Amino acid sequence: MRPFRISAAQARKLPALGAAFFLALGLFAPQAHAADTSSAAQAGKPATATQASAAKAAAPHAIPVPKSPDTPKDARPLASDAQAKAVAPKAGSALGTAKAPKQLAAAPSATTGCDVSAFTGNSGAALVQQVKAASLDCINTLYNLTGNDAKGAFNEAQMATVANALRDVSAAYPGDNSTSAGQLVVFLRAGYYVQWNHADVVGTYGTTLQTAIRGALDGFFAAPHSKDVTEANGQTLAEAVTLIDSAQENARYTGVVKRLLDGYTTSWSGSMATAVANTKTVIERGFDRTDFTAALQADPSFATSMASFVTRNASQLTGSDTVTSIGILIGNLVAVDALKAQGRPIVKDLINRYPLVGATAPLTMNLVWFAEKKDTGNCAYYGTCDLPTRLVPLVLTINYTCNANLRIRAQDMTAQQLTDTCTSLVNEDAFFHKLVKDSGPVANDNNTSLEVVVFDDYYNYSLYAWEMYSIAVDNGGMYEEGDPSKVGNQARFIAHEADWLRPTFQIWNLNHEYTHYLDGRYDFYGNFDDGMTTPTVWWVEGLAEYVSYSYRGVHYDAAVAQAGQGTYALSTLFDSTYANADSTRIYNWGYLAVRYMLQSHPQDVDALLAKYRVGDWTGARALLKNTIGTSYDADFASWLKACAADNCGSLPTSQAPLCTATDARQYDKNCRRDGVAATTGNYSYSFLYLPAGVKQLTITSSGGTGNADLYYNGGAWATTGSYLAKSATAGNGETLTIANPPAGWVYFSLYAQQGFGGVTVTTTYN
């Protein structure tokens, strides 16, 4: 729903419109490959526009559309692992929770209640006793502490005391929680989490805690029973692994991570499998730390352990598994200069070892992203130079032609869905032309056809579209206009199904984006940058919203609600740009402005479009700001009040369905034919059968190129020398209304004053 011709750099500036986000169903998709700086920083992997587009030249005039509800908040490759902060300790513990298949056994003296003062009002040995005696459920509630309670429980002295206690307990760790090691670990995790979010209250952590926590973790991981492959050990071990990251000691314990990766087999289950899964956090966030990078540089076996972990356990690859998630992190090796030599052969092997589609696709496509975006210029080494071409037939297995001007490439659509989509777009075409009353494409526009690419869902769109079409995927789709002045240019809308609406089938933003294609071809001269010479966003986005909602007959609840706010004057909306307006002003208010102008001042719209169509941007701006100026503001304000009460005026009706008679010349009641054409001086002859009692027959023509005049002649062929009625204005927008026509066959024709094509002809009677 972004403008049809905006550059990628501009596109990243506009907040997304619409629904709340949900995480991507546990599946992995590549990160937002052209995400803005703020989103990249939030993800912990700052990326510049240069880095994001280095592997391929940015597609000309490519623009993202509003995000779908499936678009993940976190723009990192692991879409299922959203994180509030780049290196924030993870919140909460699975230890002892009701959802766990087994709970760590609480100490024999565990209390049934949870008195916060037991942790804030005690220190030293008394604090340790309270922590060890508390239930795990109680310890887990401490993640929520704030204010003085947070400071009292988790100041550095308290944390160091508990860390030293964990060190002491670890010396004789029995491989289960009978000595309450689990409570001590979870308390420390909670402390790091609370301090991260409330450092101003809790205070800073320094060398005292660092020394203590290193002693604690050294002691625990050195304990012989911490290596037991048992459910009892796994429960505390899994939390201790996460504590490594909470304490930001990722570099110090690469050996522990490597030990778990090397030891893991498919027989590990339950909490032992969780312990291995938790190494993902240590590795992932470790790559944000220079000391971690240095540790991996000094120990190349860490990289080979990660690779071996993947290849040994490849049978587990499903796309939403631990092997996939850790395997994807291998890509970070080529993102760090010091580690590239280690990472290149491993990444190359994995990319070429596993299929690009199916269960292994999340692994391979994410590693391809790292290879292309973080090790640019080496596609020949990785064997990925021709990957976009190879992916198209692998992923988009359906190639369906609607007509000479419209084609669908799809991942998974039924025959009926393809037919319905074609019908929707073809009918919208006629609806659009009737609305804007154009006389054909603007000069030098060669976007004669549109390719609609439809991925099965957001996940597949984000997984593949970035590589296949060199676009950003942190959005709900992308329209690529290309260069309309170039002969053979292919306009393309890259979309995905709205899988959250299933079983109802819908392609996200389909009709809005198709309006952009039509508007760019028939209303705007030149390319997008030309059209943005002066503010045109109110029309560009407002028309797309207006056509989409009106054509589909959908009530625009959000826009009507905005009308009641009365936020903007019409003259202010004429100034909207992508830089000065948010999504509400661009889409909701753009719709309201366009609807008002089309209904209340259609002659001004005609004059405005006449200037847009020849590229007279200065003249169009003068019309809006000088000729119209503020003269409609008061009336617009009154109209908004009525609209807020759901009295916005009449919407245009949808176009008649296509005629079904085999003979292309034959029409019927309420039907139309598209693509009507004739050469200069010739006719397109037509006829229809009228039953007795018809009171009024209406024949209209619209759209297309050239200049066609409409003639009607009752019971005989209609020509310029034999007719009962005619409509002969400039262009193809002709209408004839015949009162009380005779029953039986009647005839009409379009005469080519100038050769015409692509015209829509509609007949209705009552």
Could you outline the blueprint of secondary structure elements for this entry?
Elements: H1 8-11, H2 37-42, H3 49-53, E1 62-64, H4 117-120, H5 124-133, H6 136-141, H7 147-154, H8 156-170, H9 181-197, H10 199-202, H11 207-222, H12 231-246, H13 254-263, H14 270-286, H15 290-298, H16 301-312, H17 322-329, H18 340-353, H19 361-374, H20 379-382, H21 387-395, E2 398-403, E3 406-410, H22 415-436, E4 450-455, H23 458-469, E5 478-480, E6 491-496, H24 510-522, H25 528-531, H26 537-552, H27 557-563, H28 570-573, H29 583-600, H30 602-612, H31 617-628, H32 633-644, E7 666-667, E8 671-678, E9 683-690, E10 696-702, E11 705-712, E12 725-727, E13 734-739, E14 744-765
Helix pairs in contact: 5-8, 5-9, 7-9, 8-9, 8-11, 9-12, 12-14, 13-14, 13-16, 14-17, 16-17, 16-18, 17-19, 18-19, 21-23, 22-24, 24-26, 26-29, 27-29, 27-32, 29-30, 30-31
Query: What's the β-strand tally?
Result: 14
Low-pLDDT residue spans: 1-27, 30-64, 71-86, 96-112
What global shape is seen?
elongated
Sheet bearing the most strands, described?
8 strands, mixed
State the helical fraction.
Answer: 40-55%
SS-derived structural category: alpha+beta
Distance between the termini: 38 Å
Radius of gyration equals 33 Å
Mean pLDDT, all residues:
85
The number of helices is: 32
Strand content: 5-15%
Textual characterization of the structure:
By secondary structure, this protein is α+β, with helices and mostly antiparallel strands. Among the domains are: 91-249, no CATH class; 557-644, no CATH class; 666-765, Jelly Rolls (Sandwich), CATH 2.60.120. It is built from 32 helices and 14 strands. Helix 9 runs parallel beside helix 12 (231-246) and helix 22 crosses helix 24. The protein is elongated. The relative contact order is 0.09. Residues 1-27, 30-64, 71-86 and 96-112 have low confidence and may be disordered.
